[in-house]
Amino acid sequence: MPSDRRTMTDRMLDEAASSLARQAPYDSVDAWLWRRSHDLTEAYLTVLEAEGQLSRQRHHRWMIFQPTHTVLVDSPARRHAARRYASDEPVLAALAAAAGIGDELT
Predict the structure, then answer these.
(1) 25: buried, middle or exposed (CB in 10 Å: 19+, 13-18, 0-12)?
(2) Sign of CA dihedral 30, 89, 72, 45
(3) Kindly report the CA angle at 35 between 34 and 36, in degrees rounded to 5?
(4) Which of 11, 36, 40, 59 is deepest in the core (most CB within 10 A)?
(5) What span, in angstroms and rounded, lies between the C-alpha atoms of 93 and 81?
(6) Is 70 exceeded by the pLDDT of residue 47?
(7) How far apart are alpha carbons 86 and 58 in whole angstroms?
(8) Percentage with pLDDT > 70 across the chain
(9) For residues 37 and 58, is the Cβ–Cβ distance under 8 A?
């Protein structure tokens, strides 16, 4: 059940929170993700790339038509997130386990 509405420091998280049902019947996390998942990944990739958190790179520079892949930029935000993940915060550990994420983040 959603709590009081607060403004988040993360624009995308704030937008997601604003889409929560505030009256019964409330969405489960699964239902909310199912409803919102269309274009959610691309929206986050676009924002993170615009903020300089991601970079799109080609495997070989000489192959101009080869598809690009997205890589994380070594940024203060990424290092901070990696430190939090490595500290085994209970909430982050539970979310990572639920998402099927293992030690590859460290």
Answers:
(1) exposed
(2) positive
(3) 95
(4) 36
(5) 12
(6) yes
(7) 30
(8) 77
(9) no
